[in-house]
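Sync notes, pocket subgroup
Present: LS, DG
LS reminded everyone that the earlier model was apo-only. Rerun requested with flavin-adenine dinucleotide included. Inputs:
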Amino acid sequence: NKKPKIVILGAGYGGIMTASRLIKSNTQQDAEITLVNKHNYHYQTTWLHEPAAGTLHHDKTRMEISSVIDLKKINFIKDSVVEIKKDEKKVILENGEVDYDYLVIGLGSEPETFGIPGVNENSFAIRSVNSVRLLREHIEYMFASYNKEDEKHEDILTFVVAGAGFTGIEFVGELSERVPELCEEYDIDPKKVKIYSVEAAPTALPGFDEELVEYAMNVLESRGVEFKINTPIKEVQDGKVLLNDGEEIKSQTIVWTTGIRGSSIIEDSGFETMRGRVKVEKDLRAPGYDNVFIIGDCALIINEEINRPYPPTAQIAIQQAYTCSKNLKDLISGKEELDVFKPEIQGTVASLGGKEAIGLVGDRKLYGGSASAMKKIIDNKYLFQLGGVPLVLKKGKFNFF
Ligand code: FAD
């Protein structure tokens, strides 16, 4: 009697927590479990705005998979997924292939460009350790370059962040904290530096509480950030952003944060998607594929109260991992009735750099220091869920005051 094979694609929040929960429930006794990931480390996507701006070292946001997952209990393959052959129950990797009886897809997201020309070619993204390390180096290089030439080019010190959603605002927060340090280090007058936050919607942080949005904008404006709200971008060219209203902003650093779509592998593998995400069944399985679970940013679930999709968050990815691992265990032990996934939104906190943040926890609005402390508690809580106290002590955030 051969054990069924469970294959998990991606070791982000959704994938690694699924692996961790399967081990906790001893599922490896009844199934052969394999985790596939591009890198031999897990990184925390929700922290990436910090290493992107250089306010935190990127090693703080990542950890070796072997340090949090017992690789005696499951197999780990370090490789990139190329295609899912769902009808043959097989996954094609860059350097091989794996077959499965049950599949979990947690491959995360890609930047949404809305078809705007030039975005991929001419802008930076905040999506992985590799992409943010490059962005941080580039920002420092801009500061280092400025004083080199006799003729000063202002675009070298102009930073454009496209999209004032959560990621854009959190990055602008970190960058505006980092700029004074960089100016000091590279002997540059802070007045020469410009940071633009450009947003197509009529407000920054669309969908968020108005008072909190105003607070956030005031904090960032006081650090010199210039908002261009209600201002769609028409095109991104090498060294400039063209706005719908005809204006252009010259900049050597354009950072694209206008939202995400699901990993293109899913669409390319023939799943039906909306913005690259699969509208999953209530038990998190893909429609028509009873042996395929899709979680995290690759999955679309509807908030029935407002009849709109839940925004893609780590919070939901982690909660889905709990339901997904339970459902896998149940399926393997022959149960037919699976658990229904129901997100419990515990709160949303956006950091604004330094000790500033805003948040909504239950009905409570949080500002400044208390919101910033809450953000760190949330970050530490995840580390605790994944690796217990030792991981919190190793990677946690403790600079509360
Ligand atoms: P991810 O965590 O992105 O993991 C995907 C994994 O798949 C990665 O490890 C990647 O290496 C791997 N992978 C991708 N492609 C391949 C491939 N082809 N082959 C093999 N492996 C592959 N959410 C919150 O809840 N709260 C927040 O405060 C918050 N802040 C954020 C701040 C920033 C700057 C950003 C960018 C996002 C933030 N989010 C936040 C959103 C959150 O990070 C995502 O919703 C979450 O990471 C989704 O988890 P996931 O498991 O689907 O994907």
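DG: The chain has a mean pLDDT of 95.
LS: The longest strand covers residues 32-37.
Action: DG to write up.
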